[in-house]
Amino acid sequence: MGHPGLRRVARKLLPEEIGSDEIHRLVADMIDTLHDAGGIGLAAPQVNESIRLAIIEIPGGQTRYGEIPAMPLTAFVNPEIEIINDESAGYWEGCLSVPGLRGFVMRPQHIRVRALNLRAEKLELELRGFLATVFQHEFDHLDGRLYIDHIQDPVKLAFEEEYERYILPNEPAADESQRRNS
Ligand code: NI
What we know:
The chain is an alpha+beta fold.
């Protein structure tokens, strides 16, 4: 946080760039970074590449919000979000670019995502709940936004240690994926 690269609007990838060795190398590096950090998502601007590319990998499981479907590691190129229903719900979000903090953010909980994969094929996903939040968090990075920009109540911004100690015990059974950063 504070690096100007995180605050830029990233550019779209051209069709001929998507399958390039350079992009494949970048994605391989991003996967390493994501796994090293134990996160669930990483956007190219977080590794100082100002292009519209993000990877997401979500371990599924039972949570207080119901069953969250697992999502195998997927790369999203030039993604767009359509809000299907702007009814919002909040989660405590974390971000690899804002280490050590957690913040409560309200976001729409029913969205459609259109993007390309690394073979330049069209992807379309309809997402609800926690997954809708994760995708909005990740693709915000492509527009130079961080989750902290959405925090409505500054009281709901905490260090991870205090979040774990004072806040998490009062939240009904958050699962592991909700404690990871993106
Ligand atoms: Ni993030």
